[in-house]
Amino acid sequence: MKALQHLRTINHHKWLVMKGCFKVGLYRQGLMHDLSKYSPTEFLVGCRYYQGTRSPNNAERESTGYSKAWLHHKGRNRHHYEYWIDYSVNPGEGIVGQKMPTRYVIEMFIDRIAASKTYQGENYKDTHPLAYYEQGAAKLGRMIHPDTAKQLHFLLTMLAEKGEEETFAYIRHKILQKN
Ligand SMILES: [Zn+2]
After folding, report:
1. Residues in the chain with pLDDT < 70?
2. How far is the CA of 33 from the centre of ligand 1 (A)?
3. How far is ligand 1, taken at its centre, from the CA of residue 44, in Å?
4. Which of 39, 49, 124, 176 has a C-alpha 20 to 30 A away from that of 60?
5. Helices H, strands E: what count in the chain?
6. pLDDT on residue 48
7. By 3-state DSSP, what share of the chain in percent is helix, strand and coil, each rounded to 5?
8. Record's InterPro entries (predicted)?
9. What confidence score (pLDDT) does residue 172 get?
10. Ligand 1: distance of its center to the CA of 173 in Å?
């Protein structure tokens, strides 16, 4: 039964992200979002460690020390800043987050809204995604590029202050300059 629950969770998440991406005009990304979750490497782990209230990757990590599903996922999905972690061209810097293309920062933003909605349920408010990000941001260090962090924080702040409709319209018309 966990397989069905897991399937329902990822389908629902994809649906929420797709609605958001379509509102801002990112149709292809809306359709392709998180498709690797249906691959056996990610799907079977998701079924086995299904939690309902948090990501199964956390449970896999606690049980084996690391999450194979997450390593598979973040290597294939460009809307995660972890996908963009690479050696710096500046030899003194080591491994750092590279600047993400804007359209993936926007998909990451929409992904975070969807995740907050799923975990907060009826209690969800437009301020939650910002609060969640701020609570973890200090720990990210150089793993996220400063420009990417700034762009994400800007969007999350706008969401908290002006709401979803106004922020999505701003992204569509002003940032992506679509009609
Ligand atoms: Zn993802």
Report:
1. none
2. 7
3. 16
4. 124
5. 9, 2
6. 95
7. 75, 5, 25
8. DUF5662
9. 98
10. 25
Task: Give the alpha-carbon dihedral of 107, 111, 113, 115, to 10 degrees.
Answer: 180
In sign, the C-alpha dihedral spanning 159, 17, 134, 6 is positive
Helix (H) or strand (E) holding 85: strand 85-87
How many whole angstroms from 162 Cα to the centroid of ligand 1?
26
Beta carbons within 8 Å of 45's beta carbon, 6+ residues apart = 56, 57, 60, 67, 68, 69
144's tokens: 């996220």
- The CA distance from 102 to 59, in Å, is 32
The pLDDT of residue 178 is: 86
- Residue pair 134/160 in contact (Cβ under 8 Å)? The answer is no
Q: What is the pLDDT of residue 104?
A: 98
Residue 79 Cα, ligand 1 centroid: separation in angstroms? 7
Maximum Cα–Cα distance across the chain: 50
Ligand 1 centroid to 92 CA: how many Å?
31
